[in-house]
Amino acid sequence: MSFASECVSNFTEIITKKYCLFSGRARRREYWMFVLANFVIGVIASVIDNVFGLEIENGANDIEILSTIVSLALLLPSLGLTVRRLHDIGRDWYWIFIALIPIAGPIWLLVLECREGDRFDNAFGPDPKAGPVFVPGDNRPVV
C-alpha cells in the first residue's frame, strides 16, 4: 500500500468509523496522517475559495465559505483524535487545553503529540502498536 493510499484510508476511517470517538488510544502514525490529510484538504478548499471567489467580505477580514465549512466538519474528528493521541501517552483529555497558553502552550502540545506512546496497556486501553503474539507450537494468536 502506498503512502498516499494509506493516508486516504486512514482519513476515511477516522471520518466514518471514529468521527466522535474520544475513548481509546491513537498511534503517532494515525495522528500525523490525519493532520497531513486535513492540511491538504484545507489548502484545496482555500484554493477553491480563492479561484471561485467564495468569500464573504467582512471589513479587513474575508471569510472563506468552503474553508470554514471544511474546518467545522473536521473539528470533532480532530478533537477526538487529539484526545486519543494524548491517551496514548498516558495523559487525560483536559491536557488539550494546554494549547490555550500563549506561545508555549501550542509548542508543548506539539511536543506531547510527537512523543512515543506507552509501550504497554495503560489506563486508556491496550497498546495500539501491539499486535497478536504468536506462541511457538500454538496455532492461535494470544492477545
Walk me through the structure:
The two termini are 26 Å apart. The chain has 5 helices and 4 strands. The protein has one domain. It has a two-stranded antiparallel sheet. A two-stranded antiparallel sheet has the order 3-4. Helices cover 51% and strands 8% of the residues. Strand 3 and strand 4 (141-142) form a beta hairpin. It is globular and about 50 Å long. The protein is mainly alpha-helical and 143 residues long.
Please give the domain count: 1
- Low-pLDDT stretches: none
The largest sheet is:
2 strands, antiparallel
Q: State the helix count.
A: 5
Q: Give the rounded overall mean pLDDT.
A: 88
**Which strand-content bin applies to the residues?**
5-15%
